[in-house]
Amino acid sequence: MSDATINTTVNQPEAGFGDYVALLKPRVMSLVVFTAAVGLLAAPVAVHPFIAFCAILFIAIGAGASGALNMWWDADIDRVMKRTARRPVPAGKVTAQEALALGATLSVMAVVMLWLATNWVAAAILAFTIFFYAVVYTMWLKRWTPQNIVIGGASGAFPPMIGWAVATGGVSVESVLMFALIFMWTPPHFWSLALFMNSDYQKAGVPMLTVTHGRRVTRNHIFCYTLLLAALAIGAGFTAIGGPIYLAVAVVLNAMFVLGAWRIWRRDEACADADGFATEKKFFRLSLLYLFAHFGAILAEAALRPWGLGGW
Amino acid sequence: MSFREEHELHGRRKGRNIGVGLTLAAFIVIVFGLTVVKVTRGDFEPPRGQQVEGN
């Protein structure tokens, strides 16, 4: 390679391998991997370990690909928001076209490979998940309605259904319950984040509930959705995915979650400003533990079943 | 032995090339592994009924 090559390209974005990995939103992928693995392992059909590994990998790649498509489309607003300004596209490390190419290629590859490795139902749900996140949520809902994360939350809720479909080749009440758990968890999780990141969304013109209806209405919504979530999560404990371990975890965590939501609900803005949104931040952190613990408990019930301990 | 100092850009490109190379190698291993598992489980064998009709 000549020096001329260096001089001609040094001012253009030249990404490292890690920048392309960052396009796939690795932190979101970790949640997808975990919930998809729980869906797969909780299913009553055993899957060959190598096929299970590959299936989880392709689901993760599919989720990552939709993240890259999201970064391609949202580069303009990511640039404005403090939370997202360091992402590879707004930081100038990767061009938007590269993000599009990577996202589209990996999407197709992940769906086709999942189909070949497992079955068409799992591949079809993965394809729909990518479409839902990249097109329905990112291109349509996100900039249009304050209900963006309520409806868009479905895309994050599909992975356990895909895992279940990998094992069983279909959809059942159990997989729909796991979907519903994440679907109902998403609004309080993201709205609590929006409460203390409101200025970011305001600057970018994203119609989050906090921007369009204010923090008071958002607090009301968080409390309502948390009550509905608690009823669903505890109710699921009496179904096929539940059992004594799940029920114990659900009762404790939902009591904590409802208490956190109630604390958020009764606070006013002066109070929240005074302590730097400490209650809202605590609730947001608890929401992460909440989801991991519920799915961990579902996994524990399934793992203990062969010894006659899991489930009812 | 080279006396020219490597530009930071070359280091980044090298890292990217190694990353892409390892990813492709991993993909080959995965496709090979999947093929082995599916062939040994008999996933590619035609259903019994079809075999009888064929004969």
UniProtKB/TrEMBL annotation, chain A:
Give a short account of what the protein does. Answer: Converts heme B (protoheme IX) to heme O by substitution of the vinyl group on carbon 2 of heme B porphyrin ring with a hydroxyethyl farnesyl side group.
Reaction(s) catalysed by this chain, per the record, are: heme b + (2E,6E)-farnesyl diphosphate + H2O = Fe(II)-heme o + diphosphate
Q: Which GO terms describe its cellular component?
A: plasma membrane
Segments spanning the bilayer are 28-44, 50-73, 94-115, 121-141, 148-167, 179-201, 222-239, 245-265, 286-304
Where it mainly occurs, coarsely classed, is membrane
Listed EC numbers: 2.5.1.141
Q: In which pathway does it act?
A: Porphyrin-containing compound metabolism; heme O biosynthesis; heme O from protoheme: step 1/1
Q: Which organism is it from?
A: Lutimaribacter pacificus
Pfam families for this protein: UbiA
Q: Member of which family?
A: Belongs to the UbiA prenyltransferase family. Protoheme IX farnesyltransferase subfamily.
Record CDD domains = PT_UbiA_Cox10
The record's subcellular location field reads: Cell membrane
- Gene Ontology biological process terms, A to Z: heme O biosynthetic process
The miscellaneous comment for this protein is: Carbon 2 of the heme B porphyrin ring is defined according to the Fischer nomenclature.
Membrane protein topology class? Multi-pass membrane protein
Q: Which GO terms describe its molecular function?
A: protoheme IX farnesyltransferase activity
Q: Oligomeric state and partners?
A: Interacts with CtaA.
State the encoding gene.
ctaB
Per its record, how is this protein called by name? Protoheme IX farnesyltransferase
Q: What class of enzyme is it?
A: transferase
The keyword Manganese is assigned to this record: no
Does Transferase show up as a keyword for this record?
yes
Q: Which UniProt keywords apply?
A: Cell membrane, Heme biosynthesis, Membrane, Transferase, Transmembrane, Transmembrane helix
TrEMBL record, chain B:
Q: Where are the transmembrane segments?
A: 20-37
Superkingdom of the organism of origin: Bacteria
Q: Does the keyword Transmembrane helix apply?
A: yes
Keyword Transmembrane present in the record's keywords: the answer is: yes
Keywords in alphabetical order, please.
Answer: Membrane, Transmembrane, Transmembrane helix
Q: Can you name this protein?
A: Cytochrome C oxidase assembly protein
Q: What is the lineage of its organism?
A: Bacteria, Pseudomonadati, Pseudomonadota, Alphaproteobacteria, Rhodobacterales
